[in-house]
Design brief:
Elements: E1 11-14, E2 23-26, E3 32-33, E4 38-49, E5 52-60, E6 69-70, E7 73-75, H1 82-94, E8 98-109, E9 114-123, E10 134-141, H2 153-172, E11 179-182
């Protein structure tokens, strides 16, 4: 940030009185500009095929991680709930109609100032297609997941937790749990082996 959004005067990075973190402060009107983490919200769209759960993944058509697979997700907009954001992103990226379920995972990605939230979701039908930000959209059983071509550590962690829970649900008739984790490793920057 270079200029104040209130008066357009240059800002400086400093620790305001009574605070303990550096903030952008306007040298003219003294407005303190707070930058807070962004919410990335998505879904885990599930289709049950004779008791075998399949997950709908999107192949990214945009950077970062162009050509890698992801769950449908994106930045939350103002004036929407997290569940509404999950439904919207699923519609936009996968063209899919879902019935949103419970919040499944919350992943803190502090190094990039983000919190990722993923909701369980049931596909209402198989009428889905790539949106403008997706190259492809496809259903995967657990053994078909392209684990080495997943876009982000939050996607891998969420899928690992989902499939671990699905075994417990199948064996005990229980429910999917809620999971909270910190993702501490940096994002990978390599390219996928196949961009097709």
């Amino acid at each position: 940030m270079k200029f104040c959004s209130e008066c357009a005067y240059p800002v400086t990075l400093q620790i305001p009185e009574g605070d303990n973190r550096p903030r952008y402060v306007c040298g003219q009107c003294a407005t303190i500009h707070y930058h807070n983490p962004k919410l990335v919200v998505g879904s885990i769209p599930v289709w049950d095929v004779d008791g075998e759960l399949r997950i709908l993944l999107c192949k990214r058509a945009i950077e970062p991680r162009h050509g890698y697979w992801t769950l449908p997700a994106g930045f939350m907009e103002n004036a929407e709930t997290t569940a509404e954001a999950a439904v919207r992103e699923t519609e936009e990226e996968a063209g899919a109609n879902v019935e949103i379920g419970e919040l499944f995972s919350l992943l803190n990605v502090a190094q990039v100032h983000q919190v990722h939230l993923f909701y369980l979701a049931r596909l209402k039908d198989l009428d889905f297609a790539p949106g403008i930000e997706s190259l492809d959209v496809k259903l995967f059983a657990e053994h078909e997941i392209p684990w080495e071509e997943l876009a982000f550590p939050t996607i891998r962690k969420t899928l690992e937790l989902f499939f671990a829970d699905s075994v417990k649900v199948r064996e005990t008739g229980g429910r999917f749990g809620f999971h909270s984790h910190d993702i501490l490793r940096p994002m990978r920057i390599s390219s996928p082996s196949n961009d097709s």
